[in-house]
């Protein structure tokens, strides 16, 4: 080996370097040739629509506005152009330009959701070979520290007020009361209701199948009364076929509801109940209320299962692996919550039920 030929200390690499030297080719030449043979990295304007079409509806709704902003800002730039600092700076700009709401908290949620949207975008860029994992700029940008929730469990009197407004105002009180009852019994997220179909009702065992964020799916017990009203709602507003398809919750004209029904409902509640407007009460407050009640009444394991949460090893230590509630325990909680017997309930309880209201 000539004195000019570099050595690496590894025989196989040294042999390759000798061969390259004889051919008059440098390692940099190989890298440049490989780069030239690859197709160009797509621009944001080219790649964002592809990702938007590939992700679930919930992800599209959550991140769509942020992706639109990125395309507006960097549409002609390629994915491997922005630095972590530029991504962070755009997040600060989005935070400053946010719509200020009564229950806003300084824009930290907007910035956090933007970074999550960018990580989602770049993860697919990595998966498709457009960006190397080590060069992923979004992964190098820290999310703002999440603030503690300002929600708390609503007392029975407040729940009664909400149901009273829903029952006596609006253009479809029957629909709104059914929605409130559904969220109060299941403590599900909005997606759980919007994704519910007629085939997701197990009338015999009083179970509903909930499909929520992250592609999660579970069967949740409900009271016989709620199950009866859900089936009746489909009978009158759906196509009436037990194996019919499409969303269950519908307007009188048969059109499925969207998230806009929630906006209309809670805006109306806020107009009649100033305290609800001040605190930004929404369907998620019902979830918070019911899960809190279940935890206080039946313990952590059942509350976690009722909420559809999956335990992690760091959540409560190794013991979390063994703390699991079965469906009969959840059904028992529903039975006490509603004051009705449930076909899957395992035992009776002396717990005081919460006021579910609604239908």
UniProtKB/TrEMBL annotation:
One Pfam family it belongs to: Phage_integrase
Location of the Tyr recombinase domain: 149-335
Entry-linked PROSITE patterns: TYR_RECOMBINASE
Gene3D superfamilies: 1.10.150.130, Intergrase catalytic core
Keywords, sorted A to Z: DNA recombination, DNA-binding
Family per record: Belongs to the 'phage' integrase family.
PANTHER family: INTEGRASE_RECOMBINASE PROTEIN MJ0367-RELATED, PHAGE INTEGRASE-RELATED
Protein name: Tyr recombinase domain-containing protein
Organism of this sequence: Luedemannella flava
